[in-house]
# Entry
Amino acid sequence: MWNFYDAQVPAQLRHFVSSATVIGLIMGLDTGLGVIIQPWMGLISDRLALRRTGRWPIVVAGACVAAVPFALIPWATSLPMLMLCIFAFGLTANSFKGVTETLVSDYVAPQQRGKAQGFIKAGVSLTIIVSALISLLVVDHSLKAAFAIPPILMIGMVALSYRFLGRRHPTALRRENTDTDQADAFSSPWTVLKDLAREPSRARLLLMAGIFCFAGMWAALRSLTTPYGTEVLGMTRGAAGGIALPGANRLPYLRRPAGRAVTFGVFTVVARRAERPLATAS
# Structure
């Protein structure tokens, strides 16, 4: 859902805002909200992890609530209405986004978490593919339907995840028996920041700075790709939103010859979609 948001919301803002700088600032609103919200929601989720239901109430409730403002984005007929949808989505989505990544520690042993993160990144590539396909196949025909598909897929996947990975799952790590005397010493996000500042090596601080810079670069790239395709390359909005499809080749099968053939085919489809408006204009 986030990939489709980054691909299509800048084009939606273009109807009301002409400045690329202002659009970039608005697209960074969800990141600013995440810096404030996600640490506190992580603290709350750690406390809920001691209960029978674990962190799942935050994930399930957050996904259901965030789906509403996301689906309403194409229905906004004015900039204030659109800003309200963007703010509401950023507020609710950031409340559970970080918690979903924390679920790995509840189900995967520490020595296996590197492999688990690898599968997660493969899943991220899959979301980019799905987002680009929705842009290519649906956006130019029905924008409202295109914005309704990602929330439906997200809620469906959250429901399946809870069904198979809930606290009833026999392989889930049970934290209910954890001794309260061994609880984490970090009582708030401010304590974490103070601990980072006092660390002599500054290793964790440099790591967080690197992650922040990389995430900012990726978000900026995704936010500018669709406007660049529509305004500079003359592509349709759907074709421009599908530019990222060839780049989502981090899945293992795309390293094989068949995968490269699929990538070439995707390039061909995007190129042909891009040629249509240029041919019409000439």
Observations:
- The chain has twelve helices and no strands.
